[in-house]
User: What shape does this take?
Amino acid sequence: MEAKNPISEKTVSVTEVNNTIKACLDSSIFQGLEVFGEVSGFKVSGAHAYFTLKDEFSQISCVCFNVVRTYRPRDGESVVLRGKVDYYVKGGRLSFQATSITPVGQGLLFLQFERLRAKLTEEGLFDEKYKVPVPQYASNVLVVTSKSGAVIRDIVTTIRRKNPVMDIIVRDVRVQGEGAAHEISGVLKRVDSLGYDVIIIARGGGSLEDLAPFYDEELVRTVFSMKTPVVSAVGHETDFSLVDFVADRRAATPTAAAELVAYDYYAMVDAIKQLNAAMSRGVNRIFERKFTRAKIACVEVSHKAKSFYSVRENRVRLLMSSLESLVQRICRNAESRTEIAVAKLDSLSPLKILARGYFSVQAAGRSVTSVRKLKSGDLVTMTTGDGSAVAEIKSVETKV
Assistant: This one.
């Protein structure tokens, strides 16, 4: 079956559509318009300005060529633009070309932020007395930002250039749009008790509405209640959010925040090495001085010791000589007393008595000291100085 050709007589090209739109918008009705709104994302490139004009419900991209000829508004300021609606055919983009910009006053969003800032200032949330110092030597840092942006790369690169050992933890959050402030606030509440040394809240620059989450009252009060030191790095150097005012430290940019929290590891190592070398030199000098003093003291002690021991040696020799004489006298006296005692004992020895004609009599293995212990017929052993004999008792006579 042959496919039906989708192109018909009514089919037109993209260029024809855009040209038609362009032709309609080039009509007089869209020329010489005056449009009121609030400026957002105002940027100047060369001689031209590019920004967004918005109100409560809608917005339109704007361009002002040769902006030096007219008023240059700030973000959040209400203005009246005079110009025309333009349609870029090739890109299919609608914009408003302003020939002049007239200030009307500050925009609604800016006024809301200013009222909130005044309220929180009066409550004391921005007072310096509530701010805590950022640790000089933080070992870990938590970065609360969007992982998809260039901000986190800038922070990590900057920290690692100074410090290769610090722990960097990232909590991915939305940093613009509805609900972003509540999400950041929730993360901060959950991590406050986890022991981080410092927390960086960061995002790149943007328009006032892009930075709106960082003007949120809930987020500001959460940062105020944090026990962990908080560094705010929101927007560019000229951007000031309410989180900047309530944070413990404000950094002009995310890169500046990284510089602030990261101590220079390499400089510290060099300083420690230099200090160690200086201490080593000092210790060596002290050791050399002490060693020299010790050598001198040793020589002095050696001389004194020789003199001391020479005197003591003579005294000891005299004492030894006296002691030797005393011991000899004691020994001679002891020998003399011993000889006398031996002579006395020898004279009293039973053997000496037996040698003079006496007998020692034993019966049944016991010494006989009385004849009354003997009876006729007993066998006795008689011992004298030159031997012994066995005899039988024939009779026993006792003295009355």
In short: The longest strand covers residues 93-106. The mean pLDDT is 85. The chain is about 40% helix and 25% strand. The longest helix spans residues 265-347.
